[in-house]
Amino acid sequence: MKVFRFVLMLAVIGYAGWLAWPFLSPFLEGAPIDLAIERARAMVEAGGGLPQAALWIGAVLLYVVAAFLLGAGNPRAAAAYFLGFIADAVLRLAIDRSNGSQNASIAADSSMAGGEMARRSAEVVAPGGLPVDPTWLILVVLLAVGVLVVILSRRRVRRRGQGQLAA
């Protein structure tokens, strides 16, 4: 069970990294720090401003916190994960609604920060040729991962026989 919890922790950290990549990439490309900050600021402004950026960064941070809590076996991992999930879902659905089309995730403008996330999500699902909107499919998968986080972060209470000392 600990190995599965570790694998799930790595998956959550990987998703958080994938989600944060558009903001982190200017800093990791080797550009001077002032230019990287300017590019990250431009992405925040193009992606709908501070509210969407706050949701995006908040979701990433909550996913990372949930992953570390899950790795430690802390039952609070589920709460942190679902708070991150809520922020991620609100952001995805806001992007989906703002574009106005039924399959808005695929048609999103890639220059916008939110559109970048939607475009990358659509690219992940596109090879399967699924007739389902990628936004809803990804939210269902994230919800299933959240259920696994709840299951794996629960503390196991071991019953001790009478006279047995706690170790």
What does this structure look like?
It contains seven helices and no strands. With 167 residues, it is an all-alpha fold. Helix 3 runs antiparallel to helix 4 and helix 4 packs antiparallel against helix 7. The chain is elongated. About 7% of the residues have low confidence.
Keywords:
single chain; 7 helices; elongated
Fold blueprint:
Elements (H helix, E strand, L loop, with lengths): L1 H27 L4 H14 L3 H22 L5 H23 L4 H4 L5 H13 L8 H20 L14
Helix pairs in contact: 1-2, 1-3, 1-7, 3-4, 4-6, 4-7, 6-7
Provide the structure class. mainly alpha
Quaternary structure of the protein: single chain
Rg from alpha-carbon coordinates: 19 Å
Shape type? elongated
Summed up:
This protein has 167 residues and is mostly helical.
